């Protein structure tokens, strides 16, 4: 069975976009892959985070993943910082990375272009090597990513190939998986940009833990267009297309089926249906989430997972150290 791996930074609340674009994909794929999903808390350190809030978010993400349907029978859930071997391998990969390729990574490139940004951390420059270590240390076959994150998997592939050419066959070359639909959910007020937890107005983004009635209102206020017809056309009807993706994803149907359902509906009727589905989804999810947190299962699952991932990671780092000649 092939191995799937993915991680998420605990730098804010999870959004509906996170669920549709990533978490729901893991839930569907977990029985077909040996699945590893982790909270990338070390990646959060490239910017300042309140320590108490960061610790709370880490735990909450694990609980939310379980509530969303990730099953410990199929999925190994763990926290990055609890396995020190990620850092050991990251340093080796940094030493096999080039300044040019790291400087071309999106986040650093965008930050360095901002003339008002004077305090860019070294971690923002080097963290892609740690991300590559996260992937390569477990011999991941596939890495589900959004379109924006594909370059990180490409870097991991390049570093793995470079290391294998220098020191012999050591790392598996991972493949990125980009879902065909739902890969990116867009802002409800500006459907030309990705739905983001950093949305300043709060009107364009739906959080998984927000009041379901609030989310319902946001859907009803979502930007559409003047055409008044419901069909999927990402370029000319981004707002309507975004709502169709949300509806079809939460209902588990295709875009074509959703379009057929609403072909004779006006925008008011269409939005009411989408809003109801979102409200119902959040109510059910939040109930499961509270049950998980109250059950005490988070610590039990993490303790069991840590033992498994440490053994795998330790063995890979041992192989790498032996290949490069460090240690006794």
Show the helix and strand layout.
Blueprint lengths: L2 E6 L7 H14 L4 E6 L11 H18 L6 E5 L5 H10 L4 H5 L2 H8 L8 H15 L5 E3 L5 H18 L7 E3 L34 H9 L17 H14 L3 H7 L5 H29 L1 H28 L4
Parallel strand pairs: 1-2, 2-3, 4-5
Helix pairs in contact: 2-11, 3-6, 3-12, 6-7, 8-11, 9-10, 9-11
Could you walk me through the main structural features you see in this protein, from its secondary elements to its overall organization?
With 328 residues, this protein is mainly alpha-helical. It has two domains: 3-183 and 296-324, HUPs (Rossmann fold, 3-Layer(aba) Sandwich); 212-290, Tyrosyl-Transfer RNA Synthetase (Orthogonal Bundle), CATH 1.10.240.10. 53% of the residues lie in helices and 7% in strands. The protein contains twelve helices and five strands. It has a three-stranded parallel beta sheet. It has a two-stranded parallel ribbon with strand order 4-5. Helix 1 links the parallel strand 1 (3-8) and strand 2 (34-39). It is globular and about 70 Å long. It starts with a strand and ends with a helix. The relative contact order is 0.14. The model has no long low-confidence stretch (mean pLDDT 92).
């Amino acid at each position: 069975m092939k191995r799937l791996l993915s991680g998420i930074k605990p730098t804010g609340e999870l959004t509906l976009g996170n669920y549709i674009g990533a978490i729901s994909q893991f839930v569907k794929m977990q029985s077909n892959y040996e699945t590893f999903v982790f909270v990338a808390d070390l990646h959060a350190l490239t910017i300042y985070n309140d320590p108490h809030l960061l610790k709370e978010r880490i735990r909450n993400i694990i609980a939310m993943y379980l509530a969303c349907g990730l099953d410990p029978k199929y999925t190994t859930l763990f926290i990055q910082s609890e396995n020190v071997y990620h850092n050991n391998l990251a340093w080796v990969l940094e030493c096999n990375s080039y300044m040019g390729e790291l400087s071309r990574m999106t986040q650093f490139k965008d930050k360095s272009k901002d003339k008002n940004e004077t305090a860019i951390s070294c971690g923002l420059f080097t963290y892609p090597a740690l991300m590559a270590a996260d992937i390569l240390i477990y011999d991941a076959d596939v890495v589900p990513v959004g379109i924006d994150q594909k370059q990180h998997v490409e870097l991991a592939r390049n570093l793995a190939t470079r290391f294998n050419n220098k020191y012999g066959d050591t790392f598996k070359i991972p493949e990125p998986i980009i879902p065909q639909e739902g890969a990116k959910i867009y802002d409800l007020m500006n459907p030309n940009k990705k739905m983001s937890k950093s949305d300043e107005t709060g009107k364009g983004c739906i959080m998984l833990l927000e009041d379901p009635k609030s989310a319902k209102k946001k859907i009803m206020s979502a930007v559409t267009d003047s055409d008044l017809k419901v069909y999927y056309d990402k370029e000319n009807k981004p707002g309507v297309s975004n709502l169709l993706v949300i509806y079809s994803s939460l209902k588990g149907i295709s875009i074509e089926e959703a379009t057929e359902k609403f072909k004779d509906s006006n925008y008011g009727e269409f939005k009411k249906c989408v809003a109801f589905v979102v409200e119902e989804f959040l109510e059910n999810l939040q109930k499961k989430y509270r049950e998980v947190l109250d059950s005490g299962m988070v610590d039990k699952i993490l303790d069991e997972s840590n033992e498994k991932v440490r053994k795998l990671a330790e063995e890979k780092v041992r192989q790498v150290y032996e290949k490069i000649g460090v240690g006794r």
